[in-house]
Amino acid sequence: METASIIRKFRPAAKPLAGRKGSTAKPAKKRTAGTHRNGFLNYSFNPVWGVAFKDWRSAEREFFVSLENLCDLYGWTKPDYSGLSFPQNVSAAYKDVSGLLGSNLDIKLNICQDKTHHLCLATTKTFDTDYHLYYIPVRPLWKMRDIKAEQPPYCLLMAVFRYLYQVAGVPFFTEPGTIDGNYDTIKNWLDEEQDEEEEPYRERQKNELKALELAGNTLLPEIKEPFNLKELEKDLARYQRSAKADVCLVEAVYEIVKLIKDYPKRAIKETMYYGDEDDDNQTIYWEQYISFYWSGEDCLSETLYQMVNDEFQEMVYQEEPVNNQWFDTPQEKPRHVFDYEPRLLSLIDRLAEILNDYDYEEPDE
Description:
The chain is mostly helical and 365 residues long. Helix content is 47%, strand content 8%.
Protein backbone atom coordinates (compact mmCIF):
# COMPACT_ATOMS: atom_id res chain seq x y z
CA MET A 1 0.00 0.00 0.00
CA GLU A 2 1.76 3.15 -1.19
CA THR A 3 -0.12 5.51 1.12
CA ALA A 4 0.83 3.53 4.20
CA SER A 5 4.50 3.60 3.30
CA ILE A 6 4.35 7.34 2.71
CA ILE A 7 2.68 7.94 6.05
CA ARG A 8 5.57 6.26 7.78
CA LYS A 9 7.82 8.92 6.30
CA PHE A 10 5.64 11.58 7.90
CA ARG A 11 5.35 10.00 11.33
CA PRO A 12 8.09 10.05 13.88
CA ALA A 13 9.80 6.71 14.38
CA ALA A 14 7.94 4.24 16.57
CA LYS A 15 9.79 5.81 19.46
CA PRO A 16 12.08 8.68 18.47
CA LEU A 17 15.78 8.12 19.00
CA ALA A 18 17.56 10.34 21.48
CA GLY A 19 19.29 13.38 20.08
CA ARG A 20 18.38 16.14 17.71
CA LYS A 21 15.70 15.50 15.14
CA GLY A 22 14.63 17.70 12.26
CA SER A 23 11.17 18.26 10.86
CA THR A 24 11.79 16.41 7.62
CA ALA A 25 8.40 14.84 7.02
CA LYS A 26 7.58 14.77 3.35
CA PRO A 27 4.72 13.70 1.05
CA ALA A 28 5.04 11.48 -1.99
CA LYS A 29 7.82 12.42 -4.38
CA LYS A 30 5.63 11.64 -7.38
CA ARG A 31 4.02 15.06 -7.04
CA THR A 32 5.09 17.56 -9.64
CA ALA A 33 6.64 20.54 -7.92
CA GLY A 34 5.45 23.81 -9.33
CA THR A 35 4.68 27.45 -8.75
CA HIS A 36 1.00 27.21 -9.53
CA ARG A 37 -0.01 30.18 -7.41
CA ASN A 38 2.74 32.46 -8.51
CA GLY A 39 0.42 34.65 -10.55
CA PHE A 40 2.11 36.41 -13.42
CA LEU A 41 5.03 33.98 -13.35
CA ASN A 42 2.71 31.24 -14.59
CA TYR A 43 1.67 32.97 -17.79
CA SER A 44 3.44 30.95 -20.45
CA PHE A 45 2.68 32.11 -23.94
CA ASN A 46 0.01 29.70 -25.12
CA PRO A 47 -2.84 31.09 -22.96
CA VAL A 48 -2.10 34.56 -24.28
CA TRP A 49 -3.48 33.67 -27.72
CA GLY A 50 -6.97 34.24 -26.41
CA VAL A 51 -6.16 37.61 -24.87
CA ALA A 52 -7.47 40.65 -26.71
CA PHE A 53 -4.72 43.28 -26.47
CA LYS A 54 -5.96 46.85 -26.41
CA ASP A 55 -2.73 47.82 -28.13
CA TRP A 56 -1.16 44.78 -29.75
CA ARG A 57 1.55 46.87 -31.39
CA SER A 58 2.74 48.03 -27.97
CA ALA A 59 2.67 44.45 -26.68
CA GLU A 60 4.61 43.24 -29.72
CA ARG A 61 7.19 45.99 -29.24
CA GLU A 62 7.54 45.13 -25.56
CA PHE A 63 8.18 41.49 -26.38
CA PHE A 64 10.90 42.18 -28.94
CA VAL A 65 12.64 44.69 -26.65
CA SER A 66 12.78 42.01 -23.96
CA LEU A 67 13.96 39.48 -26.56
CA GLU A 68 16.83 41.76 -27.56
CA ASN A 69 17.83 42.27 -23.92
CA LEU A 70 17.72 38.51 -23.33
CA CYS A 71 19.89 37.75 -26.36
CA ASP A 72 22.39 40.47 -25.42
CA LEU A 73 22.82 38.99 -21.94
CA TYR A 74 23.42 35.43 -23.12
CA GLY A 75 25.28 36.32 -26.31
CA TRP A 76 22.71 34.85 -28.67
CA THR A 77 21.95 36.02 -32.19
CA LYS A 78 18.58 37.72 -32.15
CA PRO A 79 16.14 35.78 -34.38
CA ASP A 80 14.58 37.74 -37.22
CA TYR A 81 10.87 37.17 -37.77
CA SER A 82 10.07 40.43 -39.54
CA GLY A 83 8.38 38.45 -42.30
CA LEU A 84 5.74 37.14 -39.89
CA SER A 85 2.82 39.07 -38.52
CA PHE A 86 1.72 39.25 -34.88
CA PRO A 87 1.30 36.96 -32.97
CA GLN A 88 3.05 34.34 -35.16
CA ASN A 89 6.31 36.30 -34.97
CA VAL A 90 6.20 36.26 -31.18
CA SER A 91 5.40 32.55 -31.06
CA ALA A 92 8.23 31.60 -33.43
CA ALA A 93 10.80 33.78 -31.63
CA TYR A 94 9.80 32.43 -28.22
CA LYS A 95 10.10 28.84 -29.45
CA ASP A 96 13.61 29.45 -30.77
CA VAL A 97 15.05 31.19 -27.72
CA SER A 98 13.40 28.67 -25.38
CA GLY A 99 15.38 26.00 -27.19
CA LEU A 100 18.61 27.90 -26.59
CA LEU A 101 17.93 28.02 -22.86
CA GLY A 102 16.70 24.45 -22.78
CA SER A 103 19.97 22.98 -21.51
CA ASN A 104 19.69 24.99 -18.31
CA LEU A 105 17.24 22.90 -16.31
CA ASP A 106 17.28 25.28 -13.32
CA ILE A 107 16.02 28.29 -15.26
CA LYS A 108 12.82 28.54 -17.27
CA LEU A 109 11.92 31.16 -19.85
CA ASN A 110 8.39 32.52 -19.78
CA ILE A 111 6.35 35.20 -21.46
CA CYS A 112 4.95 36.97 -18.43
CA GLN A 113 2.30 39.49 -17.55
CA ASP A 114 1.62 41.63 -14.53
CA LYS A 115 0.16 45.08 -13.87
CA THR A 116 2.95 46.83 -15.76
CA HIS A 117 3.94 44.22 -18.37
CA HIS A 118 1.78 42.85 -21.15
CA LEU A 119 4.14 40.62 -23.12
CA CYS A 120 7.59 40.49 -21.55
CA LEU A 121 10.20 37.75 -21.42
CA ALA A 122 11.45 36.74 -17.97
CA THR A 123 13.56 33.90 -16.67
CA THR A 124 12.48 32.20 -13.46
CA LYS A 125 14.18 29.86 -11.02
CA THR A 126 12.45 27.94 -8.24
CA PHE A 127 14.06 27.05 -4.92
CA ASP A 128 13.41 23.38 -4.18
CA THR A 129 12.17 22.95 -0.59
CA ASP A 130 12.31 19.17 -1.06
CA TYR A 131 8.84 18.72 0.49
CA HIS A 132 10.17 19.26 4.01
CA LEU A 133 7.87 20.39 6.79
CA TYR A 134 9.46 23.38 8.47
CA TYR A 135 7.46 23.15 11.68
CA ILE A 136 8.72 24.90 14.83
CA PRO A 137 7.57 23.28 18.12
CA VAL A 138 6.22 25.67 20.76
CA ARG A 139 5.70 23.25 23.65
CA PRO A 140 9.41 23.37 24.67
CA LEU A 141 9.15 27.15 25.13
CA TRP A 142 5.98 26.75 27.17
CA LYS A 143 7.68 24.28 29.50
CA MET A 144 10.44 26.81 30.21
CA ARG A 145 8.16 29.74 30.86
CA ASP A 146 7.56 29.40 34.61
CA ILE A 147 10.85 27.79 35.59
CA LYS A 148 13.29 30.30 37.06
CA ALA A 149 16.39 28.38 36.02
CA GLU A 150 15.14 28.27 32.42
CA GLN A 151 14.64 32.03 32.02
CA PRO A 152 17.87 32.68 30.02
CA PRO A 153 16.96 30.22 27.22
CA TYR A 154 13.30 31.23 27.48
CA CYS A 155 14.08 34.92 26.91
CA LEU A 156 16.43 34.07 24.06
CA LEU A 157 13.96 31.78 22.32
CA MET A 158 11.10 34.23 22.83
CA ALA A 159 13.14 36.90 21.04
CA VAL A 160 13.81 34.47 18.18
CA PHE A 161 10.10 33.55 18.01
CA ARG A 162 9.24 37.24 17.78
CA TYR A 163 11.52 37.64 14.79
CA LEU A 164 10.17 34.53 13.06
CA TYR A 165 6.56 35.57 13.64
CA GLN A 166 6.71 39.32 13.13
CA VAL A 167 9.40 39.75 10.47
CA ALA A 168 9.88 36.43 8.69
CA GLY A 169 6.12 35.86 8.83
CA VAL A 170 5.92 32.29 10.18
CA PRO A 171 2.24 31.59 11.06
CA PHE A 172 1.35 30.72 14.67
CA PHE A 173 -0.46 27.46 15.34
CA THR A 174 -3.47 28.94 17.18
CA GLU A 175 -4.30 31.38 14.40
CA PRO A 176 -6.56 30.32 11.50
CA GLY A 177 -4.67 28.06 9.13
CA THR A 178 -3.71 24.48 8.38
CA ILE A 179 -2.25 23.59 11.78
CA ASP A 180 -5.05 25.26 13.74
CA GLY A 181 -7.65 23.53 11.55
CA ASN A 182 -6.03 20.14 12.04
CA TYR A 183 -6.00 20.50 15.82
CA ASP A 184 -9.69 21.50 15.70
CA THR A 185 -10.46 18.43 13.62
CA ILE A 186 -8.64 16.18 16.11
CA LYS A 187 -10.69 17.75 18.91
CA ASN A 188 -13.93 17.05 17.04
CA TRP A 189 -12.92 13.45 16.43
CA LEU A 190 -12.16 12.92 20.10
CA ASP A 191 -15.51 14.43 21.10
CA GLU A 192 -17.35 12.13 18.69
CA GLU A 193 -15.53 8.86 19.43
CA GLN A 194 -17.09 6.45 21.91
CA ASP A 195 -14.59 3.70 22.70
CA GLU A 196 -14.24 2.72 26.34
CA GLU A 197 -11.03 0.79 25.74
CA GLU A 198 -9.37 3.90 24.30
CA GLU A 199 -10.85 6.28 26.87
CA PRO A 200 -7.64 6.82 28.91
CA TYR A 201 -5.65 7.71 25.79
CA ARG A 202 -8.45 9.91 24.48
CA GLU A 203 -8.51 11.81 27.77
CA ARG A 204 -4.77 12.27 27.52
CA GLN A 205 -5.15 13.71 24.03
CA LYS A 206 -7.99 15.98 25.18
CA ASN A 207 -5.81 17.29 28.00
CA GLU A 208 -3.01 17.93 25.51
CA LEU A 209 -5.39 19.96 23.34
CA LYS A 210 -6.40 22.02 26.36
CA ALA A 211 -2.74 22.60 27.18
CA LEU A 212 -1.85 23.73 23.66
CA GLU A 213 -4.83 26.09 23.59
CA LEU A 214 -3.85 27.63 26.92
CA ALA A 215 -0.21 27.89 25.88
CA GLY A 216 -1.06 29.41 22.52
CA ASN A 217 -3.36 32.03 24.02
CA THR A 218 -0.74 32.89 26.64
CA LEU A 219 2.37 32.94 24.48
CA LEU A 220 1.01 34.66 21.36
CA PRO A 221 0.56 38.09 23.06
CA GLU A 222 4.18 37.84 24.26
CA ILE A 223 5.36 36.87 20.77
CA LYS A 224 3.51 39.88 19.38
CA GLU A 225 5.47 42.28 21.57
CA PRO A 226 7.76 44.39 19.32
CA PHE A 227 10.84 42.60 18.08
CA ASN A 228 14.15 44.35 18.70
CA LEU A 229 17.42 43.08 17.26
CA LYS A 230 19.52 44.74 19.96
CA GLU A 231 17.48 42.99 22.63
CA LEU A 232 18.02 39.67 20.86
CA GLU A 233 21.77 40.29 20.84
CA LYS A 234 21.69 41.17 24.56
CA ASP A 235 19.72 38.01 25.32
CA LEU A 236 22.24 35.98 23.33
CA ALA A 237 25.21 37.51 25.17
CA ARG A 238 23.49 36.95 28.54
CA TYR A 239 22.69 33.35 27.67
CA GLN A 240 26.25 32.66 26.51
CA ARG A 241 27.53 33.65 29.95
CA SER A 242 25.26 31.19 31.75
CA ALA A 243 26.81 27.96 32.98
CA LYS A 244 24.24 25.77 31.22
CA ALA A 245 24.37 27.47 27.83
CA ASP A 246 23.60 25.11 24.94
CA VAL A 247 26.37 25.54 22.37
CA CYS A 248 24.08 24.41 19.54
CA LEU A 249 21.44 26.98 20.49
CA VAL A 250 24.07 29.73 20.73
CA GLU A 251 25.41 28.90 17.28
CA ALA A 252 21.94 28.76 15.73
CA VAL A 253 20.86 32.10 17.21
CA TYR A 254 24.17 33.67 16.16
CA GLU A 255 23.39 32.65 12.55
CA ILE A 256 19.86 34.03 12.90
CA VAL A 257 21.29 37.38 14.02
CA LYS A 258 23.56 37.41 10.96
CA LEU A 259 20.57 36.65 8.71
CA ILE A 260 18.56 39.48 10.25
CA LYS A 261 21.40 41.94 9.70
CA ASP A 262 21.70 40.86 6.07
CA TYR A 263 17.92 40.98 5.50
CA PRO A 264 16.40 43.16 8.26
CA LYS A 265 12.88 43.28 6.84
CA ARG A 266 12.71 40.25 4.57
CA ALA A 267 9.70 37.91 4.87
CA ILE A 268 9.11 34.40 3.56
CA LYS A 269 6.11 35.37 1.47
CA GLU A 270 7.99 37.97 -0.58
CA THR A 271 9.18 35.46 -3.18
CA MET A 272 6.01 33.36 -3.18
CA TYR A 273 4.04 35.75 -5.43
CA TYR A 274 0.43 35.13 -4.59
CA GLY A 275 -1.81 35.17 -7.61
CA ASP A 276 -5.36 36.45 -7.84
CA GLU A 277 -6.87 33.20 -9.04
CA ASP A 278 -9.28 31.26 -6.85
CA ASP A 279 -7.97 28.43 -4.68
CA ASP A 280 -8.28 25.22 -6.67
CA ASN A 281 -7.46 22.86 -3.77
CA GLN A 282 -4.54 21.45 -5.74
CA THR A 283 -1.70 23.50 -4.29
CA ILE A 284 0.34 23.15 -1.11
CA TYR A 285 0.78 26.77 -0.07
CA TRP A 286 3.83 27.89 1.87
CA GLU A 287 1.89 28.49 5.12
CA GLN A 288 1.01 24.80 5.13
CA TYR A 289 4.58 23.56 5.34
CA ILE A 290 6.21 26.49 7.19
CA SER A 291 4.60 27.13 10.56
CA PHE A 292 4.78 27.05 14.33
CA TYR A 293 3.05 24.02 15.80
CA TRP A 294 2.59 22.55 19.25
CA SER A 295 4.91 19.55 19.35
CA GLY A 296 6.36 16.67 17.40
CA GLU A 297 6.80 14.61 20.55
CA ASP A 298 3.33 14.63 22.12
CA CYS A 299 0.40 12.20 21.92
CA LEU A 300 -1.17 14.21 19.08
CA SER A 301 1.79 14.31 16.72
CA GLU A 302 1.20 11.00 14.96
CA THR A 303 -2.37 11.94 14.09
CA LEU A 304 -1.31 15.44 13.02
CA TYR A 305 1.41 14.16 10.68
CA GLN A 306 -0.98 11.65 9.15
CA MET A 307 -3.56 14.38 8.53
CA VAL A 308 -0.96 16.60 6.87
CA ASN A 309 0.19 13.68 4.76
CA ASP A 310 -3.33 12.75 3.68
CA GLU A 311 -4.07 16.35 2.72
CA PHE A 312 -0.84 16.79 0.77
CA GLN A 313 -1.39 13.54 -1.13
CA GLU A 314 -4.33 15.23 -2.87
CA MET A 315 -2.23 18.17 -4.06
CA VAL A 316 -0.57 18.51 -7.45
CA TYR A 317 1.55 21.63 -6.97
CA GLN A 318 3.67 23.14 -4.21
CA GLU A 319 4.22 26.84 -3.77
CA GLU A 320 7.94 27.47 -3.43
CA PRO A 321 10.20 30.54 -3.49
CA VAL A 322 10.74 31.90 -6.99
CA ASN A 323 13.43 34.24 -8.23
CA ASN A 324 12.66 36.03 -11.50
CA GLN A 325 14.58 38.29 -13.86
CA TRP A 326 12.64 40.54 -16.19
CA PHE A 327 14.11 41.63 -19.51
CA ASP A 328 12.15 44.83 -20.02
CA THR A 329 15.47 46.63 -19.50
CA PRO A 330 19.07 45.58 -20.34
CA GLN A 331 20.58 43.16 -17.82
CA GLU A 332 24.26 43.07 -16.88
CA LYS A 333 24.31 39.47 -15.60
CA PRO A 334 21.97 36.61 -14.64
CA ARG A 335 20.36 37.27 -11.25
CA HIS A 336 19.04 33.97 -9.95
CA VAL A 337 20.68 33.66 -6.57
CA PHE A 338 18.85 32.34 -3.52
CA ASP A 339 20.44 33.35 -0.23
CA TYR A 340 17.76 34.38 2.26
CA GLU A 341 15.43 31.43 1.66
CA PRO A 342 17.90 28.54 2.07
CA ARG A 343 19.51 30.20 5.08
CA LEU A 344 16.19 30.85 6.80
CA LEU A 345 14.74 27.40 6.15
CA SER A 346 17.96 25.71 7.25
CA LEU A 347 17.92 27.73 10.48
CA ILE A 348 14.27 26.87 11.10
CA ASP A 349 15.18 23.21 10.72
CA ARG A 350 18.13 23.55 13.12
CA LEU A 351 16.00 25.41 15.64
CA ALA A 352 13.34 22.70 15.50
CA GLU A 353 16.00 20.05 16.15
CA ILE A 354 17.26 21.94 19.18
CA LEU A 355 13.77 22.52 20.56
CA ASN A 356 13.00 18.83 20.21
CA ASP A 357 15.77 18.19 22.74
CA TYR A 358 13.89 20.36 25.22
CA ASP A 359 10.62 18.59 24.51
CA TYR A 360 9.46 15.24 25.74
CA GLU A 361 6.29 13.26 26.31
CA GLU A 362 5.44 12.24 29.84
CA PRO A 363 5.75 8.44 30.26
CA ASP A 364 2.56 6.44 30.61
CA GLU A 365 1.63 5.64 34.21
